[in-house]
Design goal:
The protein is an alpha/beta fold. The protein has helices at residues 2-19, 35-50, 63-75, 91-94, 114-119, 142-147, 156-172, 189-201, 219-231, 245-253, 266-270, 312-323, 325-335, 348-353, 355-359, 361-365, 372-375, 379-394, 400-415; strands spanning 24-30, 53-59, 83-87, 121-122, 125-126, 129-134, 137-141, 179-182, 257-262, 281-284, 299-305. It has 2 domains: 7-134 and 299-368, D-Maltodextrin-Binding Protein, domain 2 (3-Layer(aba) Sandwich); 137-297 and 371-415, Periplasmic binding protein-like II (D-Maltodextrin-Binding Protein, domain 2, 3-Layer(aba) Sandwich). The structure holds alpha-D-glucopyranose (GLC). Residues 63, 87-88, 134, 189-190, 193, 245, 263, 299-301 line the site of alpha-D-glucopyranose (GLC). Residues 1-22 form the signal peptide.
């Protein structure tokens, strides 16, 4: 595997040194956890090997805010950003402004899981290459469950009960800051992920089916949201309605939550030497709903080259470098980012240093995609209407059944005859 990178690097080195045309390019990326630090390290390696310099344009942590900014820049034909780090759900919406990578990546594309490449292919155009995949985990405090004689919950109902029992006992014992459960409850894309997991695992299906049918207004979906509504102000702090990934991790990592729903990046951070929960936690797949199965939302990030870039060749070279097996391995080791190259899940070094990654292959392969393919360019609005309905329900503004009914009406208006 490293051979591929070495060859790419060599070719790149010869090209740039040979033609003595060192260029400066830029990459836009949002940062969660250690993403920016890690990217800087990999960019430095690229610079060293090729002579090109790469500047980071730091974006807000919220994927929703990033999307808004990217859309503005791309529709204005911005030449200042060459490479964009893109969310797995954006391909159909941004495709028209991104370079087709099919030819440039033809020798390496086969290393990646076909479904991921498929998700980044829009009408035959490969619009982005996978950097890493994402699939969430339920983080839990081993020490606290043991102390209070509780098992790791297998269903959301069990989680609800266990979180309450442990939280209350800890509070009575003088630990006033303790919360049962933290998750992503703010009105943004992250809530679409969390709520889709509650609903899909409860047998409530999708927001929009793969065939484009609006399927969200059903009793099982409403029941899942009603259960989640009951968490706010009981096992979850009221403030969870404003939490994204890092706010949840903040509460969890200071030791003030029994359970947390989050992505794998939180694992090595929680296990770090300076972390108060080091050695006290573990992670398992999310609980099942009444439907009997667990559902994990499929996330992940990719790299795309702007059509307005004046450095497309170097930008493509960089994308190849950062999405290679060697870079993916280093990302898995450093920040537990899930590779999209299946063979890396057999890598003994990754299995030893980041056991969560090795264990997460099936969770990632069975993860539930958000309906960005069937809703095409309208996905962001669909998701926005969904997370708004969910956030309102959690906040007690209208009950789940009524809010889902309204949501269905809004989605029908948005769809009209076709997506
Ligand atoms: C993670 C996922 C991404 C998702 C986002 C929501 O970054 O990788 O796909 O959209 O979380 O907050």
């Amino acid at each position: 595997m490293p051979k591929v990178l070495t060859a790419a690097l060599l070719a790149a080195t010869i090209l740039s040194v040979g033609s003595a045309r060192a260029e400066e390019i830029s990459i836009a990326l949002g940062s969660v956890g250690r993403d920016v630090d890690e990217m800087r390290g990999q960019l430095d390696a690229f610079q060293k090997a090729t002579g090109h310099t790469v500047k980071i344009v730091t974006m807000p942590a919220s994927t929703t805010d990033q999307f808004g900014q990217y859309r503005l820049w791309l529709s204005a034909g911005n030449k200042d950003v060459d490479v964009y780090r893109t969310d797995v759900i954006w391909a159909p919406q941004l495709a028209a402004n991104l370079v087709d990578l099919t030819d440039a990546m033809k020798d390496v594309v086969g290393q990646h899981l076909p479904a991921v490449i498929q998700s980044q292919t829009v009408e035959g155009k490969l619009v982005a290459m996978p950097l890493f995949a994402d699939a969430p985990a339920l983080y839990y405090r081993k020490d606290l469950l043991e102390k209070h004689g509780r098992e790791v919950p297998k269903t959301w109902a069990e989680l609800t009960e266990t979180a309450k029992v442990v939280q209350d006992a800890e509070r009575q014992g003088g630990n006033a800051q303790m919360n049962g459960f933290v998750f992503q409850g703010a009105a943004y894309e992250g809530l679409t992920c969390d709520a889709l997991e509650w609903i899909a695992s409860n047998g409530g299906g999708q927001i929009v089916s793969p065939e484009g049918e609006i399927t969200i207004n059903n009793g099982k979906a409403a029941a899942a949201l009603d259960l989640a509504k009951g968490w706010v102000g009981t096992i979850a702090p009221q403030g969870v309605l404003g939490y994204m990934e890092e706010e949840s991790r903040g509460v969890w990592q200071t030791g003030n939550a029994v359970f947390m729903r989050n992505w794998p990046y939180a694992y090595p951070l929680s296990a770090a030497d300076d972390s108060p929960v080091k050695g006290k936690f573990d992670a398992v797949p999310l609980p099942a709903g009444e439907g009997g199965q667990s559902a994990a939302c499929l996330g992940g990030w990719n790299l795309a080259v702007s059509q307005y870039s004046e450095h497309q060749d170097v930008a493509i070279e960089l994308v190849k470098f950062l999405t290679s097996a060697e870079s993916q391995k280093s990302r898995a080791l450093g920040t537990a980012r899930l590779p999209t190259i299946p063979s890396l899940y057999e890598d003994p070094e990754i299995a030893e240093k980041q056991p969560l990654v090795a264990k997460w292959k099936t969770v990632f392969e069975n993860a539930t995609p958000r309906p960005s393919a069937p809703t095409k360019a309208k996905y962001n609005e669909v998701s926005q209407q969904f997370w708004t309905a969910v956030n309102k329900t959690l906040a007690g503004q209208g009950d789940a059944a009524t809010n889902l009914q309204d949501l269905e009406r809004q989605l029908r208006r948005l769809k009209r005859n076709a997506w």
